[in-house]
Amino acid sequence: MKLNPVDSLVGLKTRDCRIRYRDALWHTLQGPWSHQSHMYPLNNSPIFRSITPGIESLRSCFSLPRHRHLHAYATVVLAGSFDEAGYIGRIRATAGDVLIHPTLDCHANRMVSAGVKLIRLNWPDSSGSGGLYRIDEIDDVARTAENDVTEAALILEHALNLPCSTPSGKRDDWPDALAAALTENTDMEIGDWAEANCLARETVSRGFATTYGITPAGFRAEWRARKAWLRLTGRSDPLCRIAAEIGFSDQAHMTRWIHRITGAPPAAWRRQLNLKTFSGSQIRSRLRAV
User: Fold this and answer.
1) Would residue 1 count as lying in a domain?
2) How far is Cα 25 from Cα 87, in angstroms, rounded to an integer?
């Protein structure tokens, strides 16, 4: 059964049927990592920020240093502009832009103009990677978000599959090229990259830290730890194998870094995997019941 978030929801007449169909559809969109959306911070850790889904207007002086989110979410820019620097690079987001923040994301924000107005929505992270996108028509998402943020997320997912203009807010200076290189190859030597780009290593370290709020070595270690966390919470591979294949010197090294960026060791996160998740047959059963 092909699910169209707009046509199928509109076609259901009663509110009860719409809610049941919407919930079943939401879980189908979450993909293989759907159980990660049900995880919660461990050890009462204040390390993660959370969002309040809905429409929000921000102060012109509003800014945030680097911070983490455990769960994936989408930001739709309705008005104004702001800068964001994170794992996907540096972005200047303006009205019509959509930022998808993946599971276990980390970034910093700075307002560029007054009157920034956003929609924040919980998002089904099916890939573990985020990005900058653009939708030409944001009115449907904005109107729906005023009353139903889950349905607004479904309409946004549908809109992102339609042809639209290309966002122009991605920055492309040498710190951004280095960030991209580090996420593509965590084994890359920063000194070699600096030399290949005719830069002194000290210049690279200082300039990157000023731009991203973290040194290149720290950025690389965090990204490696994030990859390990996504794998250990998404699959049942032995921790020692994950550590070796991701590029850590040993399992203890991986454990320290995962604890540093999540507030808990790998074994504690693994214990959460006993939470009930939706199987394909359960989802199909729910859809047939609508």
Assistant:
1) no
2) 29
